Amino acid sequence: MPHPSSPDLLVLHAVRLKGFAETDALAARFGLDAAQAHEDLLDAEAYGWVTRAAFAGLKGWSLTEAGRRRNETGLREELDRVGAREPVAAVHDDFLPLNGQATQAFTAWQLGSMAAPAPAPTGDVLGQLAGIADGLHPLEQRLTAHLIRFDGYHRRFAGALARAAADPVWITGMEVDSCHRIWFELHEDLIATLGISR
What we know:
By secondary structure, the protein is mostly helical. The protein contains nine helices and two strands.
């Protein structure tokens, strides 16, 4: 039976995955209650695991180095408790070739989009990303068979891809939940869960 992660682990993990975000965005990442997420963040701040900052009109939470270590410890303990280390490691191994394809597609798009005016997404780019989405779906199913918190990557990626046909910002834009941002987040999720580096 898939394992539901504890809300306090999910809040800290959301900070890692998002890098810098407000409470509402962190709570939304895993469908958590915003008020409880705020309390969990205040607790994490008291432990020195997160810090709150404001700059350039933006406010948000980010992990401290101690918070990064705490997040990794919590993820490792959860992975071992569920007995999912080998299945998640196997998914990571199968993810790497797909990651190479995704990296090439994003890099090619970014280099091509530097032209002025920026081109509209071509069928080639969208086709490559559609193939990557197709490859992602079974990987996510294998992950969510053990850990529910991996749910949603395929849905989000496919949704961003559908929007990219009309607006290319959904391919690599940083101001939206773009294909590139979602892919980067999934990669970070896998390496954080397994305690490895990129």
